[in-house]
Amino acid sequence: MSQVDEETPLLRPEEQLKIKTPLPWRQLSIILFLQLTEPVTAQAIAPFAPQLIRDIGVTHGDESRVAYFVGIMYSVFYVAQALTTLQWNRLSDHVGRKPVILTGLFGISISMFLFGLSKTFGGLILSRVLCGALNGNGGVIKSMMIDVTDSSNMAQAYGFLPIPWMTGNTLGPLIGGSLSHPADRFPRLFGQSTFLKTYPYFLACAGPALFTAFTWLVTYMLLQETVPTTTSLWSLLRNKCRTLVHTKPPQPNTSNSDMVQDSSDDSKPLPLSALMTPRVLIATLNYGTLALLDIALRSLIPVFYATPVNMGGLGLDPPRIGNILAVFGIANGLIQVLFFARLHDRFGTKLVYTCGVASSVPTIIAFPTINMLSRTYGIGAAVWFAVGLQLTMSIALNMCYACAAMYIAAASPNRASLGATNGVAHTVAACVRIIGPASAMSMFSFSVRDPYHAWAVYYFMMMLGLLAIGVSLLLPRRMRTRGN
């Protein structure tokens, strides 16, 4: 009898090619549309975040501390998300994906309005905490995407995931960069608005907030629930209370009815302890290191662009930063849509993932190279070529997210626990994203203040890249597939 282990596909390659379920386009298109809200709202604040920190006066004119406070502002979102995302994802296994997604969209919309109205650093922190605490949609949407696919078409579905990220990463910076300080940029339209002069970043935040509100309506009216058996929140809370009140001591001599005997039962969510299998832990560890590397890199790029050349950056203004990030978003999405599925089918999940995290090394080396070129030749063709090359190399890193999501889906003990499994992975990702922006920005501020340690931030980023590469070697060469 042939040996079968956790890395052995349940279908032979030729059988996988013959049996391929058509994609459920109606549901999939709505799920992809929902994914737009995260990049739009996150990227909208990126172009003006350094200038916003300067305007509220929290740095007291110390340019070297701008990156530090930008990092804190990004990190508190992930602190709140780390404390809540696992519970939101576990809740989605019981009450359904749709109610949790609607709650998350509501939280994003309200928090963006509050962000645009904030005039103090405390107000900015409060709005970001609210957004993180109410938003567990990242893992829930991935669980829903897995719900509507199977092992034969999951990779094909994930090939379309870059489309909303491309669109969101394009629209977000354009909205944020173009609509900040509208009274100054568009005096004929908004020059007489006292409100927009008092709150110069409100319009840049109101656009994503209104878009998220529209997404809430689309979700409420059109999205179908994908969890086959759901429990009302009231019933779930009542059962939890009864369990706490009537808990009996363990009886070792009785039958093991409370223990998980067979994780192949897809109808029942498993307890958290049953999820901690080696496959889940390895996939989660890789997702965590990827998230740490990526968030540190993405938070460093706009701050590097905004920092004066003599202090180690490029000295660009928010509109130009927004345009650069928008062009990158378009290129990133197009390249992934056109090439990810082909690369995945040709080389496999592990090789694509490992090469993706390895691309961070030349991407990091490009930072000091760009600054050196700008000091030597000014902001000219050589600098723009180097910026374009750096962003192009970083596209491979973004491909890793689809690979990581497929590893997490394959690691889940059963389909009814997909939400909890994604919740574990996203909790770890949120935890590392707490320290990612703050640590990268702190190292950048340290590098800016002390020219003797000007490369300290790049040594730190290189360490994160090498860590992600090392952890990727733990991934199985072939994923275990699961039927419907």
How would you explain this protein's 3D organization?
α4 crosses α5, α10 runs antiparallel to α18 and α17 packs antiparallel against α21. The chain has 484 residues and is mainly α.
Spell out the blueprint of helices and strands.
Blueprint: H1 13-18, H2 25-34, H3 37-44, H4 49-56, H5 66-95, H6 97-117, H7 121-134, H8 137-147, H9 154-158, H10 162-179, H11 182-185, H12 187-190, H13 194-198, H14 202-222, H15 233-245, H16 272-275, H17 278-306, H18 318-347, H19 349-358, H20 360-377, H21 381-411, H22 418-449, H23 456-472
Helix pairs in contact: 3-10, 3-14, 4-5, 5-6, 5-7, 5-22, 6-7, 6-8, 6-14, 8-22, 10-14, 10-18, 17-21, 17-22, 17-23, 18-19, 18-21, 19-21, 19-23, 20-21, 20-23, 21-22, 22-23
Task: List its salient traits.
484 residues, mainly alpha, 0% strand
Q: DSSP strand (E) fraction?
A: under 5%
Q: What's the order of the H and E elements?
A: HHHHHHHHHHHHHHHHHHHHHHH
Sheet having the most strands: none
Number of helices: 23
Shape: globular
Mean pLDDT, all residues: 82
Summarize the amount of helix as a percent range.
Answer: over 70%
Compact description:
This protein is an all-alpha fold.
